[in-house]
Specification:
Length: 286
């Protein structure tokens, strides 16, 4: 059921809640096809089958490098019995330990704030990315998408970002800061890779919105006011551009959310209510 255009593949799911594609199996299949190298940068890893696929790759003599967000491996408060297994993030720690015991080069991010990446570079030729965390909820109950791009140039941009992350070099003022990548044509589709905060993707989103002639559709988990994106959306809606969006109920009803002013400006807004099989609208797409 995936959408394929030449060297670009798009998957939307999860299948468990009525989506067309199996997100977990898409990630596993991508990993299983690795022959030489996997560079994996992901916020959270608590999905056993995905971890098993990563370990299988190592057993096939694939060079595997992994960076994760450290917050999911630590408790917020010190426990009375720190040597006893358990705790809030037990599964995360168990799977991270399994990668270490498999001699995988596994690291935690150096970023004091949230490390939010979700990508794999395979063999320097292909990239898997999207909104999907490598978690049980991310692949089974949260609405998410995955994009696979087969392109050495795109893979090169992601590889450069991975090595910056791995070495703790990121941000506009860091040493050896990477310039914003130029556009690449893949299967007659223009692709431009931007990383936050280095390349100011907010400005690119606003610029692309201003090119709209008829309609903008979006699906987003978190959308805050005063981001510049909401101001642009309000201006476009008032000028007659039709804008439709879907947001998660818990995020849309926060006092800081952009849902209130954009709806008032004429944006056709849909909010996923609790009680459905879907846990979260976790997309980040427009």
């Amino acid at each position: 059921m995936s959408y394929v255009q030449g060297n670009i593949e798009v998957y939307v799911g999860p299948k468990e809640v009525g989506g067309p594609d199996d997100l977990r199996q898409t990630i596993i299949s991508f990993i299983d096809k690795a022959k030489k190298e996997l560079l994996i940068a992901v916020q959270e890893l608590d999905e056993p089958e995905i971890t098993e696929a990563i370990i299988r790759a190592k057993h096939r003599k694939v060079r595997v490098k992994l960076v994760l967000e450290g917050l999911y491996l630590a408790e917020t408060k010190p426990t009375d019995e720190p040597f006893v297994p358990g705790g809030k993030h037990k599964i995360n720690r168990e799977l991270f330990s399994a990668t270490l015991r498999s001699a995988i080069d596994s690291k935690l991010d150096f970023n004091p704030a949230t490390f939010h990446q979700k990508f794999i570079v395979r063999d320097g030729k292909s990239v898997l990315t999207g909104s999907t965390n490598f978690t049980s909820t991310g692949t089974s109950v949260n609405l998410n998408h995955l994009i696979i791009i087969h392109s050495k140039r795109i893979a090169g941009h992601y590889s450069n970002e991975f090595f910056e992350i791995e070495n703790g070099r990121f941000g506009r003022l860091s040493i050896m800061h990477e310039k914003a990548p130029t556009s690449v044509s893949v299967s007659n589709t223009r692709i431009k890779v931007l990383f936050a905060p280095d390349h100011q993707p907010e400005m690119e989103i606003m610029k692309q919105m201003l090119k709209a002639k008829k309609r903008i559709d979006f699906a987003i988990f978190t959308f805050a006011q005063s981001s510049g994106i909401d101001d642009t959306m309000i201006a476009l809606a008032k000028s007659g551009i039709k804008i439709r969006g879907i947001m998660d109920d818990r995020q849309a009803n926060q006092s800081w959310a952009a849902s209130h002013p954009i709806h008032k400006a004429g944006v056709e807004l849909y909010v996923l209510k609790p009680g459905t099989p879907v846990r979260k609208v976790h997309h980040k797409l427009m």
